[in-house]
Design goal:
This protein is an alpha+beta fold. The protein is built from five helices and eight strands; from the N terminus they run αββαββααββββα. The radius of gyration is 18 Å and the shape is elongated. The two termini are about 35 Å apart.
Length: about 180
């Protein structure tokens, strides 16, 4: 664990303020759920909670089916990281951070598709040259929990068909419902 040199006191209601620098670095926003646990060394650990992480195995299977049906690589992301990949080597994308552009897209609660040369080319994952061909936010209990995407091949120009867009939208709606149960 990396020391930050920042010390905070607990107030009389048991609250502690997480410094702005740490919140910005860890992409912790107001209202984000945090998991709190302790380890054997007596440390109290705060970890961002990912509701999609609870269904990661299921999301991986869904990404495989989506990839096979759509013919493009498929990824499932929580609000910050890629949690499931199909159609390309997992080590290329798994656990990587999503781009701020993808975060904004998910927060807008709109589906986006690149249907031709003039369509939006949103970089989906930091440090990766692939872009989102079709993207839809996963909404569970009224909150944006992540995104599901079809992405371009490595260096390929790929465009989404109407069927691929509908597949991504259906996948996002289905995963959102699974998280609510």
């Amino acid at each position: 664990m990396k020391a930050t040199g920042i010390v905070r006191r607990i107030d009389d209601l048991g609250r502690v303020v997480i410094p702005k620098e740490i919140r910005r670095t860890m992409r912790i926003r107001e209202g984000d759920p945090l998991e709190i646990y302790t380890n054997s060394e007596g440390e109290v650990i705060f970890k961002k909670y990912s509701p999609i992480g609870e269904i990661a195995g299921f999301a991986g299977q869904y990404a495989e089916v989506l990839h096979k049906l759509a013919g493009l690589p498929a990824i499932v992301c929580d609000r910050d990281h890629v949690i499931a990949v199909s159609g390309i080597p997992k080590k290329e994308l798994l656990e990587r951070r999503v781009t701020p552009a993808l975060e904004e897209l998910a927060d807008s609660r709109k589906s986006v598709a690149c249907t031709g040369p003039d369509g939006p080319k949103v970089k989906a994952v930091e440090g990766v040259s692939r872009y989102a061909v079709a993207c839809s936010p996963i909404i569970a209990s009224g909150d944006v929990a992540g995104s599901i995407l079809l992405i371009s091949g490595n260096g390929d120009d790929a465009y989404a068909t109407d069927v691929q867009v509908k597949l991504v939208q259906a996948a996002a709606a289905f995963l959102g419902k699974q998280m609510e149960e």
